[in-house]
Design brief:
With 121 residues, this protein is mainly alpha-helical. Helix content is 59%, strand content 7%. It has helices at residues 13-26, 39-46, 50-62, 81-100, 105-120, and strands at residues 35-36, 66-68, 74-76. It has a 3-stranded antiparallel sheet with strand order 1-3-2.
């Protein structure tokens, strides 16, 4: 079990780092408690600026995918619990807004499907 990240020209590098770590964590490739490389270490390995990796780590921490334990390092967090809570809250807010607009369930679900397709680009 090792972190594998490939950077190409498809998206901003920090987004590629964020996405690939997140996918590997959620798939179990990187288990809960896995210690990630330091910001500088990963930046050197990938040939990126340290600020680029730091931005990805901040986004991942905000998403609840990783947690920083001070000088002890950065680790994969418990199975997305923070992300799942945030997703549930966003879904509840979306549904409440849709109800206020008088939109029916089929239209609400269709809008989510459209947004998912659009995000796949």
């Amino acid at each position: 079990m090792t972190l594998k990240i490939r950077i190409d020209d498809s998206a901003p590098p920090y987004e590629q780092v964020r996405t690939q770590i997140s996918e590997q964590a959620h798939a179990g490739v990187l288990p809960v408690g896995y210690r990630l490389p330091t910001v500088r270490g990963l930046a050197e390995t990938l040939g990126l600026a340290a600020n680029t990796v730091a931005k990805a780590y901040r986004a991942l921490e905000s998403d609840g995918v990783i947690e920083t334990r001070g000088r002890n390092g950065t680790f994969v967090a418990a199975a997305g619990s923070a992300a799942e809570r945030e997703l549930a809250a966003a879904a509840q807010a979306y549904v409440a807004r849709a109800r206020r607009l008088g939109v029916g369930e089929d239209a609400v679900v269709a809008a989510v499907r459209d947004a998912l397709r659009a995000a796949q680009g």
